[in-house]
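fold-stage: in
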Amino acid sequence: MELETLKDVLYLASLFHDIGKFRQRGKLDEDLKKRIRKEFSYEIKSDPQRGIAHEYVGAYVYKNSKLPFKEEAPILISHHHEQLSNLKTEYDVLTKLLTISDRISASEREEQQTSSERKIKLMRSIISSVSLKGERKPPYYKPISRFSRFEGLMDKDQAEEYDHEEDYERLWKEFEELISQDDLLRSYEDKEKRYLFFERIYHLLKEYTSNIPSAYYYSEPNVSLFSHAISTAAIAISLFKQFEERLFEKSNDRFVFAERIFNSIESLIRSYSSLRSDQPLPNDEPVLGIIKGDVSGIQNFIYNVPNAHGLKKLRGRSFFIAYLAEVIARYIVEKEGLYIANILFCGGGHFYILVPARAFDRLSKYQKILDEKLFKAFSIDLSVLLVGKELTLYDILNFKVHEELSRKLEAEKNRKFSRILDSLFSRPIDLSGPVCPYCNRRMKQKGPDQELECEFCESFAHIGAELVKKRYMKLLKTSEIENPKSANEVFKMFGYMIEFTDNPDEFSYALNKDEFDPKKSMYFVKTANYISKELVEGMEKTTDLETMAERAKGVKRWGILRGDLDNLGKVFASITNVEENQKSSISMVSTLSSEIELFFGVELEKFVAKEFKNCNVVYSGGDDFMILGPWNELPMLSQGIAKHFADYSRNEELSISMAVAIAPSRKYPVYKLGVEAGEMLEKLAKSYMRNGLEKSALALFSGCVGWEEFADFLEKKKLLEKIVEDHDVTKNLIHTLKVFVERQKKKEPTKIWQLYYYVARLIERQTNNEAKKDIQSFFNDILVGRNRLYEKLDLLLEWVHNETRKVEIKGISN
């Protein structure tokens, strides 16, 4: 059998090696058990204590599916728990490689072999368990469901009452139907579609096995079956590529080289298991590696757009960045002969790829290729930087690479395009004709009376429009090109293209997550894409900025909300705090990544679409987001997102900092306000320190409110709003309070007695007793001691002032 075919067999067997655990947890009727016993009678008789073990169930499932290699892959699956020593066949080599990769992937704890009759546990959520303080958290569990249909965590009491068998059976039946389709095998047999077959298998496993545990241990399971499957496959394929041809060198009818390599790795695994070493052993040579890719210059690229079609271009550029990282990760994976499972994470403009150690000989070459291609597309405005680390077995078992790779990346940013400097200075520059001020390309006049237009910049508006108009997207392979004239042609430089369509098939991605059906499409797009719409003359149209501003209460303005997860690096580093002696395995890192991805890529968008229909999710994915909407809705939306994340994670140590920026005029450039919101996020919200707390805040107007302060802040705001609007108290109250706030800020004598006098006279003038009571209550609330005012009063006054302004004519507010 050819090496490429052997590699495909290994990959598929690795992905499905534990699928029997999924099947076992449903309802195994006696007829099915009988057929499995008959199929694997020899193996079961050889080890009767294991009975109908998951590897036999999994091999039977695979053999009766429509997946390729129905004879070969089950051999690996059914024997992956055996301790093979004399490797006499190619399948022995592949099985041993799978066995070792399985052990490395599951290194977070030793597995306890159990019978299928044992009571099934639910998977414990990692995001609810991590602690930046090193504390042990109460357990929360995931109900059995598809990845995109997650409905919230359960506490221990709920989990104990949960009837999981019915949900396992229902979920399994759906999955079984999908891997039993004839089209699946045909897509593998078609060489041009084979990459789509592997992609579909990956996403089917992701959708159906991300919320179920990989195994049961002496302690609670907290790694998903999906994360364990893909990390096992990534390790197996990387090891295969590391040694490749030599694995199948025979001596005296045995694969001696493979035996020697595998014995060495197993010896190291045993040593690390018994020694609890905090350093790699001297004989632990790098066999794998990790590559991190990072898109540099994102903010300037996304927001450097002209006003014309600005919102479409912003949406299009955000989408482009997400898929540029995806396409480049796939480009490297394909060149290395790896699979999509080797992309451990891709989101937020960066990616991680597990590779064989020998791939590092080509890292500089890949960087030069990226520099050449991206310079042609964007000059020096946008680049993708690659850094990496060779991994010993110790590094793989204790997967703490994020901080080291981040440091390397910072150093690499100072050497951008250094590999192609000589060729840059020798290239001719075309200075003839009008050029685009944003990308420096030649501009064209579409008609005699029309303005000049940049075809390249306008192509991002086209993507933004397609995201709204169409229902599905395809990411397809194509021939590589040299000189891109549009955004989509940048993807073609790396051998891929984006295609939008209204007609789904099993290889398309749903743009609307609610329309995703695994029977009709591959998956859903990486980024959130909710768009506020309105009916105009019976036609549904995207809400424009003017309409969005009109929907605002008070001042007719739109605004931008930006936010991201606080302390992301520390969150991943704290995996080791989940349980005593917890290792940070690749599987656990992958599981935590998927839980973060689910919130920012799915849950946040659902929340906005349901609760804040007037807002647009410009982008949301990875660990950050940007939302555009009527300005007055954004502070409440930010609180809603913070609460929703708290409910989702059940972890009070985790938080999202956010910033609201309000457009000073209706026609203010979207990109400028986006930059301002980003600056507020970094300089205010992320830097807000108080009472031993840091970050976890909302930047609003010119200040910050911590999430632990927001409920009290909002209560005061609502009371002042009631006084001004419901009781029709003079708005001079707001102006007067601003005077005292300014005195306090400038550290001038506040003369607080004047405020006492003013409030007393104001109360006297009221004829409504409730108004008198509310004014007195508000005054008591904003006094700290007898001489100081509530420190957030300026933000509160600005909010109420803007929200209670009634008239706006021709852009002038009164």
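fold-stage: in (second)
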Amino acid sequence: PTSQQQQTHQIQVELFHLKKSIIENCLFGVDINPNSCEITKLRLWIELLKYSYYLFDDQGENTNALETLPNIDINIKCGNSLISYFDLKQSLTHYPNIKSRIQNYKQMVSDYKKGLFDDKTKLSTQIQELFSAFKSFCFKDKFAKEIKAFQNKCDTYRKLYGNYLAKDDKELSLFITQNPFPKYDLTFEGDEKILQEANQSFLEIRKTYDSLYNLSSNNPFEWRFAFPEVLDSEGNFLGFDCVIGNPPYIRIQGLDRATSKQYQKTFSTASQNYDIYVLFVEQCVKLLAPKAKIAFIMPHKWLNSLFGVGLRELAKDKISKIISFGHYQIFDASTYTALQWFEKESREVKFIQAPQEIESSQEMSEFLTQLTPSDFFIFPTNSLSSSPWYFGGDLSQNLFSKVTSHTPLKEIFSKMFQGIATSKDSVYFLYDCQEGETTTKGYSQELECNVEIENDLLKPLLMGDSFHRYDTPSTELRVLFPYYQGEDSKGNAKMYLYDESTLKERFPKGYTYLKKCEKVLRARENGRLQDDDMWWRYIYPKNQLLFDKEKLLIPYACRKSQFILDTQGRFYINTKIHGLIRNESFENLDYRFLLAVLNSELNWWYMTQVASVMRGGYYTYTPAYMQDFSIPNLSPKEQKPFIKLVDQILKAKEQNPKANTQDLEKEIDSLVYTLYNLTEDEIKIIENRGWL
């Protein structure tokens, strides 16, 4: 620009100072990944650079120099935002000169941002020293008892052994000083027993020190005094006005044991097999100012899953709005998310779900921008509890009540179990098998060739993609099963592993095959069986007595209910299938009647509401999601109409696996609707796959 009066220049100046003020005073960020922190700093710096403007001298001439950018890096910090050792409510008022210290802290941070310093490194060091002083004050308060107990341990050790071992420890030498007259002088050589006791005692002291003083090993983030902008003049934490985030989605299985235990101690939401995004909600609720909000994009599975019970209990009076994306995947991952808002106190929750027809980001953007308040369902939060939440109006609530008010599956079925876990399917599973009179030939993926094994060492195997609803099960797969059924000392059935001599004698072909695979079998799970005499065993031999029983089978992931009936208990299954065995108390319920209800549209609709959804619209049929669906306990006579239709379907499928049985299945659906007393409007929800 040639003049300060040019409108474009004035707009540029105004935008720069507005963005600068927002970035300096309103935006604060924390991430455990240092690279993410650096990228964020760079992104904010570039945003300001875009609006930086040229400076003019006193004569109104353009100097061709740009306005200096502030030091905004101090607002973006690295640390584990879930781990903090100091309570946000911990008072600092009893610390010496607290008001002047807080004022000094605020001023130094402000000077750093504005560049008001001669030596940036020196100012940064001073800020860090003051921050460390606050931590030291809080540390002595919070861990006063632990510090005293630790010092007592050190004093006891010093009286007994002097500074033996401690003199060479840089940290513990400060706590265990020299004692000229210890009870046991171990300077040179001592009694072996006393030496062992001294070593053990020192190790315990070292462990106590590490747990107490090495808090930084967990990379904690101390919200209590990390940002002076949210502290008042006495150092009290005021909180943030808004917390925005996309928390990580990591199941508990993805955490190391120590971190998981730390979270379970700290967070009430760390329940069941939780995902850590629920912990971020709990943490951020603590960080809010009285009338502030949280706005997260994260999975909505917690609304009705088992692991969500802790967050539902916490958020039942804090959740304020949910915009679910339904089937649409915002991120390129098998994760289904929603925009979710939380407040300190909320009297109602607004809910809406995106239409199933949305298939592109542009369509989703249009849906979001066109939303109006009248589009949302509104529910009072006092109707919520820690039980699963289903949002869809009174009609849907009534529907859920109907499908869960009878006898739940967890009572009807005594066992809902997963299939065989071999830890090396490429060895134990054989494909394209041809069964002879005494032996079977099949393809081994491990050896990449056909092998021949005795029939009595093999079992028919079904995998997750082996069947569809109402199929008569059949398979060309076999699983090598090196176990036999016997009895324990009390006469109860028990599975035993064949010993090596028996394998050699009774199953020479099978044993020869296993020997060829011995190296890989021993190497399973990082060499767990390297020195094991029973190297051919399954590492996790579970549910082995259940496969030979009559049972229903269902694949782990389905796009529609795919239950089948294994009448003779002939088939073994892999881990991608669950088996359901009826409780003896419910022998009056025919398996075919249960098959009819579980393959109905009603059950499929229920599963789409409660189960985890995967890429491609598949839902996970696990006991945790199936168990609360309920079935009326009918008499044998009342079950006959269902059984008659199922028999017709099974007969048609047996004659032709591709037979079209949709009309018969619709008749079953009609019977099921009547059985559950569904209204026409409720049936419309079922058949239109209404989403809650």
